[in-house]
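Q:
Got a chain?
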Amino acid sequence: QVQLVESGGGLVQAGDSLRLSCTLSGGTFSDYCMGWYRQAPGQEREYVAALTRSGRHTDYANSAAGRFTISKDNAKNVGYLQMNSLKPEDTAVYYCAAGQTIQSVQTGSAPFWGQGTQVTVSS
């Protein structure tokens, strides 16, 4: 069974950078598209970014475009979300997801999800 574990969250100041990691076990990342979502307190889960199996094609939400970069290292079975110029409104629990199609990741219907990692950005 595929399992995803996020790491790298923490408390940072506005303007700082942070890199989240998503480690996949029970499978091979090259078989899956990957995505990142976030959920702030009292709000619905929000799509952040997605990446194809090969890693050559990416997609970003407007809130992430230009500041965040999604990537993955298929050899290490690890995915990443590099977040720069962080803002207080980026504060949320961040989740990674994996699915066999980019559409499943983009629509939130991917079958595999991690437990999340907290990112808190202070002003």
